[in-house]
Amino acid sequence: MKPSAAAAFIRANTAVAAPPLVPELPLYQATEITPIWQATEETLARANLPPPYWAFPWAGGQALARHILDHPGLVAGRQVLDFGAGSGLVAIAASRAGAARATAAEIDPVAAAAIALNAALNDAPVAVESSDVIGSAGDAWEVVLVGDMCYERPLAERLTAWLRRLVAEGATVLLGDPGRTYFPAGGVERLAGYTVPTSRELEDRDSRDGGVWRLLP
Ligand SMILES: C[S@@+](CC[C@H](N)C(=O)[O-])C[C@H]1O[C@@H](n2cnc3c(N)ncnc32)[C@H](O)[C@@H]1O
After folding, report:
1. Distance from residue 104's CA to the centre of ligand 1 (Å)
2. CA separation for the pair 146, 28 (Å, rounded)
3. Which of 67, 118, 134, 149 to mutate to test the pocket of ligand 1 (most atoms within 8 A of CB)?
């Protein structure tokens, strides 16, 4: 799907709304889960594209974005990567907090279009990296931010091993996570916790405890 078609799909199937924990950064969001999933089945699945993760600011990403905005010193003046950016919320927060450069790594081309739209909406410069960077040298990034990526075992294991290598080489890695199954059982330090309002449709509950963690080597 071409970026212009992806942007048109996003505009047609979302509305601009404020993430509950990060109201200062509005995003193009699905207001309900069912219609966008149906639209995705009809339009995106035909193009062999993944489900619309980009249409929701996930609880882990919201907690991490909140933490970055409230502690800008974590990213100010630094080269920052938001891995698995989805809507781009965390990269946008880093850009707003004064990152020297905020890059959003995202392999879904529709998400890449959503990140561009959301970054423009918030007047926050964000670069998009669309290759799979797991396993790469990673030395271009001083701070790596990871929102809600521990939902699938093979991905979480591959990602965590790579992130630990980056930490050993000197990077700071911060994770936002609401208790997903494949979050690392050890080697993390909890920095903060936020009650993130969520929808029952998406999370089966009204709120989640969004932890912010620093990954240890
Ligand atoms: C649950 S969403 C999290 C989005 C965002 N970080 C947040 O917290 O709202 C997971 C995202 O990771 C992306 N993703 C999965 N594997 C990836 C990879 N190897 N490289 C970059 N992005 C990836 C998916 O396309 C999806 O948009």
Report:
1. 10
2. 20
3. 149
CB 92 within 8 A of CB 102: yes
**CA of residue 185 to ligand 1 center, whole Å:** 20
Residue type, 167: V
From 119, 99, 114, 127, select the one nearest 8 (Cα to Cα): 114
CA–CA dist 186, 151 (Å, integer): 17
pLDDT by residue (tens digit) across 96-138?
999 999 999 999 999 999 999 999 999 999 999 999 999 999 7
pLDDT in tens, 29-86: 998 777 777 777 777 777 777 889 999 999 999 999 999 999 999 999 999 999 999 9
**Max Cα–Cα distance, the chain, nearest Å:** 45
> Which string of DSSP letters, residue by residue, matches the chain?
--HHHHHHHHHHH-EEE--TT-TTS-EEE-SSHHHHHHHIIIIIGGGT----GGGS--HHHHHHHHHHHH-GGGTTTSEEEEET-TTSHHHHHHHHTT-SEEEEE---HHHHHHHHHHHHHTT---EEE-S--TTS--TT-SEEEEES--SSHHHHHHHHHHHHHHHHTT-EEEEEES--TTS-SSSEEEEEEEEEE--HHHHSSSEEEEEEEEEP-
